[in-house]
Amino acid sequence: MFELKIFMYNKKLKWKSDFEKSVIIENFLNRGWIKSQEKEDDSTDWNVYWATVWNQIINHFPNHYELTRKDCMVKNLKRFKREQDRETYEQQGWNFDFLPTTYIFPGEYSLFVEEFHRSPNQTWIVKPAARSQGQGIFLLRQIQQLKKISGTTITSNMTQLNLVSKENYVVSKYIDNPLLIGGKKFDLRMYVLVTNYKPLKVWIYNKGFGRFCNEQYTTDVAEIENMFVHLTNVAIQQYSDKYSKKHGGKYSIDALKFYVESAYGTEAFQKMIDDIHNIILTSLKSVQVVIQNDKHCFEMYGYDILLDNNLKPWLIEINASPSLTTTTPVDKNLKLNLINDIYNIVLPNDDFPDNEQKQQQINKIGGFSVLYDESLDLMNRKTQKRQSVKIWK
Amino acid sequence: MQQLDNQEILMKLKSQKQFWDIKKKIKQGFNDQQKIGVNDIQKFAQSCEIEDQLIKLISHILKKSKKRETLKEDQIEFLNTSKIKWTELLFKNLDIVHQKTKNQEEDDTNTDSKLYIYDEKNLLAFLQTFKQQQSNTLYQNVQFQSNKILNINIPLKSSQSILDKYQYLLLQEELSDEKINKIRKQIENEHLDIELEKIAQTFVPNGERCLLYLKYFEFDHQDTVLQQHFAKLQKECLNQLFYDELLEIDGHEISEDTFYFVFQEQILTCLKCFIRDRTIKENIRIQLQSGIKKEHAEFQLPITGFFPFKNISKYVAPLCYLSTKIHIIYALFKEFFCRYFCFLHSISSESNSILSLCMQIEEIVSTRSPKLFHHLKIIGCDTLKLIIHQLVYCFIGDMDPPHILTIYDQIIGHDSLEILVILCVGFLNKYKSKLLLAKNQENVQQIFSELREDRFQELVQYAYKQ
């Protein structure tokens, strides 16, 4: 131990800094750190680097998990809802009725148990809070099934749940009446770009896809563990015998939009689109105060939305790193253009825009259109919302 | 043809909502008047277009009362004998297909995909075998050109008249929301097919397309009847037919299509019901096979009177976008097939027949794009061989569903398949520059194997470019 302390005391860290601020340099010197002698910008001979980011951008906000971890998303949405008074959010045209009843485990286990017993015929869906691609997800009809995550038998008098893996879980009411096309369940993957949180500026992409299950949907309890019926993740469906490499179970948003409008009528279609936009805006507003805004950051989210058989959209989750794996030529084309359009927005003409330039009123670039720009005044925002449907046409 | 007397016309008028609207309007026009003469009514009717509306309504009733007979015999005799030969050929193909399916059952490794009775290439090849007929004094206006692959003297409309008919499409602009709303209201209130055709020719909003089609085919108040008919057919599907297997194989291609894979099961169900539907034989506008009964044959023609062919699934697919109810999808498919698509598989001189449409395309391309026409001939890739798939299957699989349904709108709008001629010519013109550089069939195949997006309006624009 003594030798280690001497080692640590004698270890001289090397520092590098892009600019000579005394408060930074004095700190380094006081710690006995040595300045890196390599002058080149790309030198890697340093342990600590105090960098300026004048000409650097990054595709994440520091604490995006507030939106993209399932438990944090639920927590923030609930908080945001409590904070709004009814008058404000009705005036803004928001509604919060897009998140299925959800409990976060282990903390809300007892609340869940109460609700579980109140609705004995309800199916629940259990998901690890921080995992992706359908990993660890299962449907729950009996409370004993929680043994999968607790490792111990569940008894009726238990008021708390100890989880084996120490990770949080979210347990939501399963939407058992999804909209079906051709008898199969699907969800929507939509792309949303946020270039600024304060003020909030949101772009929505006009391309996306529905991810279809390969098996006909059924609420038959015997099929409750059949993931090919219930889980739309491509990572799961690709193992189905009926999986097609040609289309990958992906049905374009354009085709879906056309189907809904043709089969259900224009009014129903417009309401569905407005409700989807509400989900996107409300979820982003809910984390606006907590996200660490930075002018060097932008983020492209993959929104997963499920439509029920009344065409009502429900928010499933938001992904900070939506898959950029391409499974078909059409998929490749979509994602190639998506990334291209993102950089046309965040680096127009390869320039690093300042805050003022970011707020300039260009409403459409490539497949992206501005969904919401908080920097506009209230009147303009209301007109923007009404026009939101035209973005999709 | 059924003739209606005045009493019957009046009875039918009274069953139309428009009749009562007109009557109400007249009554309102003469509110307080005590004495109203016939001349007064006539003047009033003329002044506010009621007379016009009444004439249209009566024409509509008279038109509907005429029951269309299925065309069995063609005016040109050799086409009748050709139809018999075609049917015989199809029976032979059926035997071969049946043998192949038996072999496949025995040997899983032999997966021959050619399990269909005929496809569009077979049909075109058959049409090409027609010899030039002796010139008939009635049809001397049709000039024989040896460089075309279809050498037949049949009455043909002038290609200029087809081009002129659809030229209005070049002037179509994007409509304002106000105009679109007006069209929506029109569709909701309109019942006369002549008015519905006018709407279909110009613009059909996506949300009202199904309603327009249902009204045009007079299905809008028939939901229960359609449902019952379909349910009855579904029950019959429990008895397996050999043709079901061919339909299942046919469905594989559509199950790989990014726009239609979601409807795979619905399409198959519709087709299985279709080949069992007895009403098709009396509703179809043209007899496709000669209907001969083969002695001692294991299989006869399906009850529809014709063999299912390769890619028949394609005709159903776009209609799946229009409704969540399968019996509606079925009814629309059946009507479209019986009125229009049947002609694409008929040996006939009718203007909508595949023969006439092919000859029109060859005529237009050879005269307006002679360089392309001759270049394709030289490299062994005739114009018709290049376009036959798009023509027979109405560009389904080549264009996105909204554009396909625009084609369907135009078919209804003009009660004709001639829009396909315009689109085929436009398709060839669009790829003209690449085709002129092609040195052989492989080059040509490569051009069309690349990812491409063909759109309705775009092909119309190209059709009129020279």
UniProtKB/TrEMBL annotation, chain A:
Cellular component aspect of the GO annotation: ciliary basal body; microtubule
Key words of the record: ATP-binding, Cell projection, Cilium, Cytoplasm, Cytoskeleton, Ligase, Microtubule, Nucleotide-binding
Location in or out of the cell: Cytoplasm, Cytoskeleton, Cilium basal body
Gene Ontology terms: biological process: microtubule cytoskeleton organization
Primary location class: cytoplasm
The UniProt record lists the keyword Ribonucleoprotein: no
InterPro entries: ATP-grasp, TTL/TTLL_fam
GO molecular function, one term: ATP binding
Record-given protein name: ATP-grasp domain-containing protein
Family note: Belongs to the tubulin polyglutamylase family.
Name of one Pfam family that matches: TTL
Ranges of residues in domain ATP-grasp: 304-347
Automatic annotation (TrEMBL), chain B:
InterPro entries documented for this protein: Rab-GAP-TBC_dom, TBC1D19
Span of domain Rab-GAP TBC: 313-436
Official protein name in the record: Rab-GAP TBC domain-containing protein
Native organism: Paramecium pentaurelia
